[in-house]
Amino acid sequence: MARETAGPARNSHRPAVTDQPSPTSRHPATEPDERGPISVPPSYEPLHVEIVSLRDHVLVRVRGELDCDTGPDLFATLAPLAHHRVELDFSQVHFMDSTGLNILRSQRRASRQAGGDLCLRLYTPPVRRVLDVTRTFDYLTAPCDA
User: Fold this and answer.
1) pLDDT at position 145, please?
2) Any idea where the STAS domain is (predicted)?
């Protein structure tokens, strides 16, 4: 005997699953087609890092999204510069999650231990928001000591 239901059962503590993109989604929605399910690239805007050696410090310009997919690239760039005074330009970073925050904190600490320093000079509103929420803005934007 088949059982009839009036509709899908919903728990009030679980969000409903829909085909609509989340209003907080970072990636643009695309329409499914005959090729199969929609795939979202690992990073909507790849991370680009430019290193500029100046007379008394190193400027590192970062552009793109800084998240768990792109963070290892930034870490690999910053780690060898620990003994230098490094100023970061995040004026073109449009998204940063806890991965980016952890890289900034750990690299500032490592730089100071190695006799260098690292500080964030320019940043976008999304980066500022992460720093404000985590109360790390003053620490990461304080002038470099080295």
Assistant:
1) 74
2) 47-146
